[in-house]
Amino acid sequence: LESGGSNPAASDSYGDRASARARREAREARLATLTSRVEEDGHRDYRKLYEGALTENQKLKAKLQEAQLELADVRCKLEKVAQQKQEKTSDRTSVLETEKRERRALERKMSEMEEEMKNLHQLKQIQTLKQMNEQLQAENRALTRVVARLSESVECSEPQGL
Length: 162
What we know:
Blueprint: H1 8-43, H2 46-161
Protein name: Protein phosphatase 1 regulatory subunit 12B
Keywords: ANK repeat, Repeat
Region (Disordered): 1-28, 83-102
């Protein structure tokens, strides 16, 4: 309450006036900003803003739908590729099994043919042996005849010489 002046009532009234003036100026500044906002709002066309926001919203929804369709398409393609891969794998498995069966059949056929070849070789040997046997039998008969003639001629020549 004490002030530096000699008259305390005069200094209080001066301070009150200054603070009142400051308050008034602040109030006027606030009123000016509020009126400028009201004027700006008056200049804005809320319908245009709403329509702009609505069109932007619709564009975003369209983009979202396109992205969802693209995602569904990619998923479908991915499933097809996975299915084809699985089919190829199963086809490969069946092809491998078929090849194994064919290989076994060919191996069996080869072993049968080898057996036949052995048998053919044995048959050829048997035929060769039969031919040799026939030749030996023929030679044996011929030798028997020769021996028989020689014995006859020896028998015939012995009584004469005695």
